[in-house]
Amino acid sequence: MPECRCGCQCDRKFGRGGVIPIVLQEELYGTYWNEGKDICVEVKKNAVVIHDDVENYGEYHKINYTNDGKTWRAACYWLGEDTKNPSTHVELVFTGNTQCTILLVKQKITIPCVRGQDYDYRFSY
Q: Which of 10, 33, 113, 125 has the least C-beta neighbours within 10 A?
């Protein structure tokens, strides 16, 4: 794949047609916020934690990261669950490393989030 041509001297590679930057899994880690719903998600290598004031979505410590070449997904499981099946709890879909959509599987709810400051313990859960 071609090297970056933006003049920034980085070693980032680019995908199809030199347009889509390849995002590494480690670049997904951080906190993503939804302004309107007062909810955020912390994304770590071995954990995903959803924080809010309404419902305790819990912490997921079994994360299956997948990448189809343009979109990263993180399927979240309880410890001991079989990761061969789709998650029945939470799935995260990333657009680059700045946007994330939380999919609450059972509730069939999607919550768009944007990467921001670290979680500051403002919520009850």
A: 10
Quick: pLDDT tens for 65-91: 999 888 999 999 999 999 899 999 999
Contacts of 73 (CB under 8 A, 6+ apart): 65, 66, 67, 91, 92, 93, 94
In sequence order, what DSSP letters do the residues of 19-71 get, joined into one string?
Answer: TSBPPPGGGG-EEEEETTTTEEEEE-SS-EEEEESS----EE-EEEEEE-SS-
**pTM: predicted TM-score of the whole model, two decimal places:** 0.81
Q: Of the candidates 103, 113, 125, 116, which has an alpha carbon nearest to the alpha carbon of residue 30?
A: 116
